[in-house]
Amino acid sequence: MSVVADTIDWLADPAHWSGDDGVPHRLVQHLGYTCLTVAIAAAIAVPIGLWIGHTGRLRGVAVVSSGALRALPTLGVLTYASLFTGIGIKAAIFTLVLLAIPPLLAGAYAGLESVDRQTIDAARAMGMTELQILTRAEIPLALPIIVGGLRSATLQVVATTTVAAYIPGPGGLGRYLIDGLALNDYPQVVAGSIVVIALALALDGIFVLLQRLALRNRPATVRIAA
Amino acid sequence: MDWVRNNTDRIGDLMLSHLWLSVVPIVIGFAIALPIGWFGNRSPRLRGVLLAAAGVLYTIPSLAFFLILPGIIGTGFLSPLNVVVALTVYAVAIMVRSATDAFESVSPSVLDAATATGFAPAGRAFLVELPLAGPVLVAGLRVVAVSTVSLVSVGALIGVDNLGSLFTEGYRTDNQAEILTGVVGIVAIALLLDALIVLAGRVLLPWNRGARTRARTSVSPMALVQHLRGGHA
After folding, report:
1. How many structural domains comprise chain A?
2. Which of A70, A111, A197 sits opposite B221 (nearest CB)?
3. Sequence ranges of the domains in chain B
4. At what angle do helices A174-182 and B62-73 cross, to 10 degrees?
5. How far apart, in Å, are the Cα atoms of A210 and each of A143, A204, A214?
6. Closest by alpha carbon to B110, among B127, B94, B95?
7. Tens digit of pLDDT for each residue in B42-78?
8. Which residues constitute the domain of residue A116?
9. Beta carbon pairs, A and B, within 8 Å
């Protein structure tokens, strides 16, 4: 049982750290897909979530559809979508965006819901417009929870990008796992898994810091200084 | 539909294995998380440590988790045990958070009253705390169930047969019906287990029916966002 030693050898081999198949290139690819899909999902979900949270309308629809999306198996969505898009990254991007929407939506509306109603009433009484209430009171106060949604979405996408390597085209770190399994090259499988896990933990750590920062910079009271 | 009609035996077998691969981690995970959550609620520091550890474990991407387990517990690379163990760890990680929330939701004055009326510590834990924590525990278990059923399908990538096998096979053979059958089957199992958990909650906690249940099971917004991480692939 020398898989552990072989894995260390694999990771120590300079050949695995350069070129298109090297860890740095795959890592950048993986992060690229993650950033792109989370950005697209955020552009869709955050405005809707903020609108739901601010107005309180359609909240039930958001809860139910988020729950339903969560029950969908991602590998199923990915393989089904790829039958239509063919080999390439389109199916992966579609699946990852779909997956990132529920936590982002929930973060936005749950964040706004967590804001004390009296604070909002006070802001309104002071003469703030609805947009000012949203941008100066609600969003700053809800920011730790909105960032929490971003954290969940990002980690989910990092994990699913790994699975998406099953479809030829997307690349990313998952290739080490899928290719290694196909070739019975277990040191490559384990080394790739370790890099994926390290990436996920590192990103989670960054989000922990961001959430603390958001919490610390939360306004104690509403400021309306123009 | 023709594909479904011609493959009913195989679909039945895969549903059964999918069910087993889901139910075992859900049940074992619940049984492990319950005492951890109870103890975690005794001290704020221990609680912090436990929730941080649960958060880290839950961050590990599932496919990578399945594939490093052989190096840790000595299983074969394609063993179903990797899936069962990894999903049990995820179930514990989600459920520990729910369990600490659940036990925290029990009012301290009720516990004092129970002690004053003569409950011994063990009796108080089982006869007072556990039933009162029930609604929040049920809510947590529902999240665990849906997330586990969905994650089992990733096991198909390491050759563990379940409804996820219809995805990999359907993809290889360009068979839309096969993939859709897998999706429908998995959603059906998730709904079935969810309904069973709700039903068990109603039978075991008959005093919590109706609107009050909803009020008591409400989770904090941050916990809600955490819970929505369920189902990551």
Report:
1. 1
2. A111
3. 1-228
4. 60
5. 10, 10, 6
6. B127
7. 888 999 999 999 989 999 999 999 999 988 888 888 8
8. 3-222
9. 171
Residues 147 through 206 of chain A touching chain B, CB cutoff 8 Å: 148-149, 152, 155-156, 158-160, 162-163, 166-167, 174, 177-178, 181, 186, 189-190, 192-194, 196-197, 200-201, 204
Question: Residues, chain A, total?
Answer: 226
- CA angle in degrees (0–180, nearest 5) for B232-B99-A53: 60
User: Taking a contact as any Cβ pair under 8 Å apart, which residues of chain B between 24 and 63 contact chain A?
Assistant: 55-56, 59-63
CATH number at residue A32: 1.10.3720.10
Would you state the pLDDT for residue B223?
52
Cβ distance A194 to B187 less than 8 Å, yes or no, reads no
B230, pLDDT greater than 50: no
From the list B97, B24, B96, B90, the residue with the least C-alpha distance to B57 is: B90
- This prediction has a pTM of 0.87
Contacts for A136 with CB less than 8 Å, ≥ 6 apart: A123, A128, A222, A223, A224
CA distance A194 to chain B (A): 7
Alpha-carbon distance B226 to A145, whole Å?
10
Classified as helix, coil or strand, A155 is helix
The terminus-to-terminus CA distance of chain B in angstroms comes to 28
| Cβ-based contacts of A45 with chain B (< 8 Å) | none
Cβ of B213: how many Cβ atoms within 10 Å? 18
CA atoms within 13 A on the CB side of A21: 10
Q: Which pLDDT score is estimated for B229?
A: 46
CATH number of B1-228: 1.10.3720.10
Q: What element of type H or E holds A156?
A: helix A139-164
Q: Which residues contact A115 (CB under 8 A, 6 or more apart)?
A: A137, A138, A141, A142
